Automatic annotation (TrEMBL):
InterPro entries: Glyco_trans_1, Glyco_trans_4-like_N, Glycosyltransferase_grp1
Keyword Glycosyltransferase: yes
Single annotated GO MF: hexosyltransferase activity
Organism: Pseudonocardia sulfidoxydans NBRC 16205
Protein name per UniProt: Glycosyl transferase family 1
Annotated GO biological process: carbohydrate derivative biosynthetic process
Keyword tRNA processing: no
Residues of the Glycosyl transferase family domain: 202-360
Length: 392
């Protein structure tokens, strides 16, 4: 296809560490690698705004930063004010005159970019990575109000994404959730994609290790993983936890109370090289989260040839085939999680067989295929606008 000027609107982008930020970075880098002129607008990691800064994590990508502010209830979380982000994103759309805008969220920056594109008649694509559970910990929403807050959040998403010509989600389950919760029918399931070759290679550490990677927030259910690990034999295994979040201090204290602090390592945020090494040396990857629309880290672990034990929740069953590349367990069933981990830790042959199956399954999520799909989507939505067809 002809080179396009693409503006990606993201409310989270590296140096943020989360699945949505990593996907936006890989999408931008992949599109730039195919010759497109790619720009990203995202919150600044500090209090200043920047224009057209080359992104070190993706050659050829220029990032435009909207002024952000520290969120007082979470050390690593920053927010943009609508009255600053809206004019900034509108000016950027006017200056760049993109061929297509692709927003990754309906929050402040994504909303401003979507509205600006709609008003300017620019083809608009929207991808959803949002579940209300992902934000309840940051926003400190009381449990008694969470159901009402979730309904409001889905309605708000529908108002913004209703502007888009095409809406996508990472999996069929995620697309179904958009239909059920937000009334958005016809969302296209397009995998986030993975460059699996980056994670291949290496060998298990001599001491079998269970690995978790992700934000340490409530919906990730790492407390269940800690309790399951504590029920395993005291010798011969370790648990590594990569990531940070609002529950790190509480879960570190829980590991101490369970008597497993000497066998659990909380690494915090790590660089890409260290993360890849953690995938390669682990024996089993565990994902107890209940709000995964795809789980990029699970794709990464599978690319490293690892069996996966995951909660039977949301989109994780799309990746984990019980008995083939791992096991699913009912969320909250700590005994079931412990039994699955214990069985795999005690059986190197089964780990090897399931790890090979993980590599086979993940081949269906190749990043090149994802880029192909999005290029097709951009062509489709641009064609609708060019011919004057209704795009929403």
């Amino acid at each position: 296809m002809r080179p396009l000027r693409i503006l990606i609107g993201a409310d989270t982008f590296p140096p943020d560490v989360n699945g949505a930020a990593r996907f936006a970075e890989r999408l931008a880098g992949g599109l730039a690698g195919r010759g497109h002129d790619v720009h990203v607008v995202a919150p600044s990691p500090d209090a200043t705004a920047h224009r057209a800064v080359p992104h070190p994590g993706a050659d050829g990508v220029r990032v435009h930063r909207v002024r952000s502010h520290r969120y007082p209830l979470h050390d690593s979380f920053r927010v943009c004010f609508p009255w600053q982000a809206s004019p900034a994103t509108a000016a950027l759309v006017e200056d760049l005159q993109p061929d297509v805008v692709h927003v990754q969220a309906h929050f402040v920056v994504g909303r401003g970019t979507a509205v600006a594109a709609s008003r300017a008649g620019v083809p608009l694509v929207a991808t959803n990575h949002f579940m209300p559970e992902n934000l309840f910990g940051h926003a400190k929403v009381p449990h008694v109000l969470q159901q009402a807050a979730a309904r409001w959040a889905w309605r708000d998403l529908a108002r913004v994404y209703g502007l888009a010509g095409v809406v996508t989600a990472p999996t069929e389950r995620a697309a179904g959730l958009l239909a059920d919760a937000a009334g958005i029918d016809g969302a296209l399931p397009i995998s986030c994609g993975i460059d699996s070759a980056r994670y291949a290679g290496g060998a298990e550490s001599p001491e079998p290790t269970v690995l978790f990677v992700g934000r340490l927030d409530e919906e990730k259910r790492v407390d269940e993983l800690l309790r399951a690990f504590a029920a395993l034999p005291a010798a011969g295994a370790r648990l590594e936890i990569v990531g940070d979040g609002s529950r790190r201090e509480a879960w570190t204290a829980l590991a101490a109370r369970l008597g497993i602090a000497d066998r659990v390592t909380f690494h915090g945020f790590v660089d890409e090289e260290t993360l890849v090494a953690a995938y390669r040396r682990c024996a089993v990857f565990a994902m107890p989260g209940i709000a995964e629309l795809q789980s990029l880290v699970t794709l990464e672990a599978m690319s490293a040839g690892k069996p996966v034990v995951a909660a039977d929740a949301m989109a994780l069953p799309h990746l984990v085939r019980p008995g083939r590349n791992g096991w699913l367990y009912t969320p909250g069933d700590v005994d079931g999680l412990s039994a699955a981990l214990g069985a795999l830790l005690a059986d190197p042959a089964t780990r090897a067989r399931m790890g090979a199956a993980s590599r086979e399954i993940v081949a269906g999520h190749a990043l090149d295929a994802t880029l192909d799909r999005f290029e097709d989507v951009y062509t489709e939505v641009a064609g609708r606008v060019a011919t004057g067809l209704r795009v929403a």
